UniProtKB/TrEMBL annotation, chains A, B:
Listed name of the protein: fumarylacetoacetase
Occurrences of domain Fumarylacetoacetase N-terminal (ranges): 26-123
Pathway involvement of the protein, from the record: Amino-acid degradation; L-phenylalanine degradation; acetoacetate and fumarate from L-phenylalanine: step 6/6
Highest taxon listed in the record's lineage: Bacteria
The protein's required cofactors: Ca(2+); Mg(2+)
Keyword Ligase assigned: no
tRNA-binding is among the record's keywords: no
Stored Gene3D superfamilies: Fumarylacetoacetase, N-terminal domain (2.30.30.230), Fumarylacetoacetase-like, C-terminal domain (3.90.850.10)
């Protein structure tokens, strides 16, 4: 589905939008904002350059397809993503026309606001949040640390491994992350202690926002699974490695993860990402073929450039920019595609609903510099990473600001970005003082 | 908090309520119903004997505390359980007066309906569902089957083990359960097959319904954790043992569980259960003491009688009643108390909200006849259980109707029951035909 909304020559009349690294007119992401001053009720928007456009306002003026007005007047995107894909395609086309055609300037301008004047919110009321584990290089590297003798378990190349996470503690980029307390047990200690986490980590993931609904008992065939992906975001699955190591057997991570999960605010739609779909990497010789319910034809994979940056309190004080921790690409990292993730999740009849969030799992590439967590970058905390200002890190310290970045790039197409996914670590609180 | 609403001599004027095994006037559970005919919008109710009372109707008549009218007019219990505990105490007292005092008969009668004429719904819009694993005899027995050398892991007696489950697929008692498909791998097979589950099981659990809200980053101290338990239900954590065995490492059960979870419709309130609280069983000599954030004083445990029954299609055809599979007591089964479960869940700052559901984990007692799953009762599928009609079972077969039952009993108090938690197994569908 590559059409004129992907024409790289198209430019928006909005100041600063042409050549914008994240939000040129070819992107048109969807999100929810409110004004910092004045009316603070959340409203649906798109981003264009360094501005946002109030879509509820545009719809009320009759400038958008009439059938979308009710969904666009909601405080979340859930209703809009419950509609048919054709409705979101129609919205994209209408927005593209309004923002690329100079003669629409007067119609749009009353609903255009500088991004600096608004606050962005979580785009959906999240029903369920599931986290997968499709980054095979991450699974291998972490597996080596937790199970040196058995890094990649026998099910990995047959099953898109996933588990349920906590929906209530998902927050939008910019929300501070309080260092959690937990049970920590050193390998040589007799008993655990209850103390603030000492091995606080990030995990670089993509998030899939589900569109549409399937009833309980009605699986999603692999051939239609892409239609259930409304769009993508960046997702930081903050992880307390010391809590995780002690609690995770036999039922998986729990308090090590559910104190916070951060997502980027803009939904980069499946339509905007269409040009960046590509064939999955061939499975290495000897790997099993997927079972039929997971067998996908065509361009099921996504090539998205990923980057992680860190800025410490000392760096901020010295006026230094963020430091790049890692850079890689989703294509090299993912053993299973987005459609395989969705089809597997629903293969037992599990019902997925618009606004559900599915994390891919940490997207580390095959090389050390593309690792998506400090656990990998510091080799389990054994090798500190040097930083500017003479500092170093094995895990995150209070005041650290960790940011994830993503861009879709391809020759002949305008680059589109996700906008950052940021969180700053705050000191643990003394809750039982 | 034992008051006159627990007086065993009290009786309701409603026909059949006096001596009712589940719903005498001392119970006063809360739920959501709609009429089978006529107005089918969901409304909040209590149960009394074989009747339900429409609380929205009573409130609209001014017969209940005025401050509750808005919460009682909702289609779920979430708003009511977001209020202070004192509000629900006031509601209990008002209902007790209305239903025990003959002179209130005229006031209540217009809102009284035979249970046979109504449908019961899920009582809450569930935000997040978490399942714990506090049944130590179950954990030991299952551990033996999955890890013969290592049944109870070293963290078990320090950490109330839990993991996140799927909120979207929780259904109310009576909803049919479709046998799920999944990846199954025999121990001696080279690769898994995709097929309908062959080892479908139940798990007998209690569910805790959360009341109130704590902000992200604000743990719940153990001393106030009981206030966060709005009430209890029965919970059947249907489990596909063959899917589970293959998928569960390293991140825990996923598709083996999230195809369906069934809860009983009535919320047995914390107030109704107050007389049945008791001191936890002393920890066996040599067991570690809980860390301070889990150290609880007083009557933290609950003594609730539990029972599981099975009725096959052949038994129904022969007019036979359900067959008892197991019977036990929550007190003997639970290594951690409800307050310890809540305090642990929020100990890292995880936010819990009114309407969240926390399963206890399977509540098997120390003896074979009190096992809460077929996996235990059939010793991992090796010893079939004889049934009436000459049948036997290792795991559930299509047409089987599995029911959980619970009662709170104590000398000097009226027995109160939970009402059944029932599900019937339906054949797998051929979704990819």
């Amino acid at each position: 589905m590559i059409d004129h909304t992907h024409d790289p020559r198209a430019q928006s009349w909005v100041d600063g939008a042409a050549g914008h690294p994240d939000f040129p007119v070819q992107n048109l992401p969807l999100g929810v904002f409110s004004h910092k001053n004045g009316d603070t009720a959340p409203r649906i928007a798109t981003a264009i350059g360094d501005h946002v456009v109030d879509l509820a306002g545009l719809a009320a003026d009759g400038a958008l397809p009439a059938g979308l007005a009710t969904a666009l007047a909601q405080p979340t995107l859930n209703a809009l993503f419950r509609l048919a894909e054709a409705d979101r395609v129609a919205l994209r086309h209408a927005l593209f026309a309004l923002l690329s055609s100079e003669r629409c300037r007067l119609k749009v301008t009353p609903h255009l606001y500088p991004a600096a004047d608004v606050v962005l919110h979580l785009p959906f009321a999240i029903g369920d949040y599931t986290d997968f584990y499709v980054g095979i290089h991450h699974a291998t590297a972490i597996g080596k640390l937790f199970r040196p003798d058995n890094p990649l378990l026998p099910n990995y190349k047959h099953v898109p491994i996933g588990y349920h996470g906590r929906a209530s503690s998902v927050r939008v980029s910019g929300t501070q992350v309080v260092r959690p307390w937990g049970q920590l047990k050193a390998p040589d200690a007799d008993a655990p202690v209850h103390a603030p986490c000492r091995r606080l980590d990030h995990e670089l993931e993509l998030g899939l926002w589900i569109a549409g609904d399937n009833d309980l008992g009605a699986p999603v065939p692999i051939g239609t699974a892409w239609e259930r992906i409304g769009g993508l975001c960046l997702l930081n699955d903050w992880s307390a490695r010391d809590i995780q190591a002690w609690e995770y057997q036999p039922l998986g991570p729990f308090l090590a993860k559910n104190f916070a999960t951060t997502v980027s605010p803009w939904v980069i739609t499946a339509q905007a990402l269409a040009p960046f779909r590509t064939a999955p990497q061939p499975r290495p010789a000897g790997d099993p073929q997927p079972l039929p319910y997971l067998r996908e034809e065509g361009e099921g994979a996504l090539a998205i450039t990923l980057e992680t940056t860190l800025r410490t309190a000392a760096m901020r004080a010295a006026g230094l920019p963020p430091h790049r921790l890692s850079h890689g690409n989703s294509h090299a990292a993912m053993y299973w595609t987005p459609a395989q993730i969705v089809a597997h999740h629903a293969s037992n009849g599990c019902d997925l609903h618009a606004g559900d969030l599915l994390g891919t799992g940490t997207l580390s590439g095959p090389t050390p510099e593309s690792a998506g967590s400090l656990m990998e970058l510091s080799q389990g905390g054994k090798v500190p990473l040097p930083l500017p200002c003479g500092e170093s890190r094995t895990f995150l310290e209070d005041g650290d600001e960790l940011a994830l970045h993503a861009r879709a790039e391809r020759d002949g197409f305008a680059t589109i970005g996700f906008g950052p996914c940021v969180g700053q670590i705050m000191p643990a609180r003394q809750p039982w003082a």
